[in-house]
Amino acid sequence: MLRNNYFGETKTHYKLYKCGKNWAVMGISLFSLGLGMLVTSQPVSADVTATSTSSSAVRTDAISESSSSAAKAETTSASSSSAAKAETTSASSSSAVKAETTSASSSSAAKAETAAITTAGVANADSQTSAEVTADSTSTSQVVTNNSNNQNNTAQPAGNSTSTTQSTNQANSQISNQGQLNQFATGFVNRAISEGANVDPNNFTQAQIDALNKLEKYSTTKKNTDTTQFTYYQFQQTADKLAEVDPQYAIPYFKADQIQNLPAATAKDGQTGKVANMDIWDSWPVQDPTTGEIANWNGKQLVIAMMGTPNANSNHLYLLYNDYGGDNFAGWKNAGDIFAGYRGDKKTGLEIFGDQEWSGSAYPLDDGSIQLFYTHSKYETKTINHQNHQRIATANLKMKLNADGTISIASVDNDHTLFKGKDNASANGTHYQTFDQWAHNVTMFDGHKEDFGGADNFAMRDPHIVKDSQGNRYLVFEASTGDDDYQSEDQIYDLRNYGGNAKFQLESLFNLINNDYSVKDKVTGKMIKIGRDMRVRASQANAAIGIIKLGGTENNPTVAEVYDPIISAVMVSDEIERPDIVKIGDTYYLFAASRLNRGTNDAAWRKANDKVGDNVVTLGWYSKDLTKGFKPLNGNGVVLTSTVPANWRTATYSYYAVPTRSTDPRFKNTVLITAYMTNRNRVADYRNKDGKAVLDPDFIQENNGEHNSTWAPSFLLRVNPDGTTRVLPYVTNQGVWDFNNATKLNTNIMTAKADEAYLPWEKGVPFDNGSILGSGQDWVDSMPSDPYTPTAPTAPTAPTAPTAPTAPTAPTAPTAPTAPTAPTAPTAPTAPTAPTAPTAPTAPINPSQPTTPTKPVQAGQAAATNFVDQRLPQTGETDQQHMTLSGLLLLAMSSLLGLFGMTKRQRKE
Known about the structure:
Blueprint: H1 2-39, E1 68-71, E2 81-84, E3 89-92, E4 102-105, E5 116-117, E6 142-143, H2 174-178, H3 183-194, H4 206-213, H5 215-219, E7 228-229, H6 232-244, E8 253-254, E9 266-268, E10 275-277, E11 279-285, E12 300-308, E13 316-323, E14 333-337, E15 355-364, E16 370-379, E17 388-401, E18 407-419, H7 435-439, E19 442-445, E20 448-451, E21 461-467, E22 473-480, H8 502-512, E23 518-520, E24 527-529, H9 531-540, E25 542-553, E26 556-562, E27 567-570, E28 577-584, E29 587-595, H10 602-611, E30 616-623, E31 631-632, E32 638-641, E33 652-659, E34 670-677, E35 687-689, E36 692-694, H11 697-702, E37 710-711, E38 713-719, E39 725-734, E40 750-751, E41 766-768, H12 770-773, E42 778-780, H13 879-908
Parallel strand pairs: 1-2, 3-4, 7-27
Antiparallel strand pairs: 5-6, 8-40, 9-10, 11-12, 12-13, 13-14, 15-16, 16-17, 17-18, 19-20, 21-22, 22-25, 23-24, 25-26, 25-27, 28-29, 29-30, 30-31, 30-32, 33-34, 34-37, 34-38, 35-36, 38-39, 41-42
Helix pairs in contact: 1-13, 3-8, 6-10
């Protein structure tokens, strides 16, 4: 019983001990927790960042000014490695930026409100003969976010950046939705913006982005550097000079009532067989092929000309002659149609309607014959627009001087096609387009088939003979580029065709690809869309000036070698015609006529039409090498510009330059400009009747009869050695080809007043401009503004005789040098002082603990006050008191719990 009671008491005691122990453990635990909170209650500032092991670490709202820096959100960093305040966080080896998402960059991140284009652009093409395109950067990035409000296009080139940054937060970006610009396009746009282009990359349409991304492919392909490009910018400058009526280029005004029909043009038409008052237009003299001077053939000067009955589609070659050196307009005689009876209908001896001869050149041979180069054109019905199939041909003309002093053609020998553009075994021409190549061209625009008729011209015509100093014979001719640089829409994306700077190139590109691009029509006052027409024209344009070397005999030549074009206007113009070359000194000067409405810049030539009423010009280049390296005269190629409307009596075209033989110093370095005057098919006879242009036969007879195309008065053009030109106020009679010491200047036929340059009924006559200018633009002429009348250059002042130099003063005899002073003996050096023993180094002082780094000052803010302890303000200081109170409460509770446990144990006992 005692044992059992003892066992029970012992068990009860153990239970009470164990229960008290549990309460004690709980109390000790709470006590430890409270004590720990008191000891460790030092807060840590949230504004302190760990030290970065990369280039730099940046406070999220601060800007580092190291070489690897961060840019303030409102500025654009020009650092070689920078970061911008943004909506993204960059983990970079160079910089860090405030953000909410992560971007990996080796160089930079762009501000969220800015579209950064970090590559550079396209070199200015004006300084190159053939425009070259370069890139200043190897960056492949474009960072654009969805909050763009950059309307001022302030993004600048980043120099030679190698950034590969690419944003990952572009889902809502406009450019992101439309596709990124590639490296080349990015640099090009960047350069255009730096040059003042008013564009915002974030507002580019998909079509614009697609076009820009094609630039690299088509602007960097290999092109022949021997060919000089007539650029879109030069075309624009030509149109501007025409509209300005710039006196350097403006053709003189001529008095309309002084202009006469050519008497020799009244002759038998070789096609109709009837005598008619024929039009005369493209003409050229028989020349020395080396000097270009007018040939003296048995005391006669010879000219070959295109002539035909008005409105009869009669286009054939006639031989005209006059006394050598003479300037009598009435002295010209007509030897008749050259090919009538040799190529025409064998029964009638007449020319065939669809078999025509066009412009060319000629020179005399030693046997007295004339070697003729011309354009043989046949009317082809298999093509879309029944175009004329042109080819370069040649024939040898046997001449006969009759007893009465007249000239006739005895025979036409060795008449054959010389060149059709084909220079290899393939169907297409490599250097020059062939007719078959052109006839089968079809392209697609906006999902529709676009036939290459209409504005698309095929050209293989107007051969001009030139001999170099070694006696080699060449033909320079109008052509179209072949496979080496062929016409296509791809040419729109080749920046070398544009010229000018990147700003001009970008604006022109966007106009060409914009079908809605519009201009105001002068007649209706309404806006008309010209964008699609411009794009089609640019895709078709491929005018060229070609050159070939001749072989064979002089009276039966062949083609020895085909060269690359010396001039190309691919994408710019589809017609640069009637080339001729004049050699002055050791330099070849190339001149060619053109109608600007054959070009692709509709807005430019329409402006010229509105200002002047015509758009015809002469272009020019020069080189010391006949086959390559031609540079544009006047820097832009402009030489002559029209000054009067196309339907006036005094309108001129088909300009042809010949050298002068005058020894008068006033005419040194000049060429004589010849042309025909009055456009064909009697346009000058139309009058305004009830608001319509009409031909009234009775009215015509009452006003001195028909006003046909005739030879214009010739005038002089100064060609300076520095590659510039100027129209001079020296005018001859009509039909002068040989300007020599006996040539008379006609001061009565030139005028400074535009209102004397038309016949009384011509002003204000409405007509279809397409019938003359080929533009299809309805137009009513207006009075062109009078250009500044050029004054005759003053005679240079003779230099004064130099004064004799004064005799030089005889030099004085040099004085004898003084004897040198003997050097003093050097003093002995003093003995060196023995060094003192070094003192023992002081013990190093223990380094103090580093203080907390100061907070960097933000740009634009004043420096903060420096506190004594240099400690950053702590954001958690107010929480320490709360934690102390909590620890004391826990200690109190642990004590109560322990006391409670002990009390309970005593009660049980």
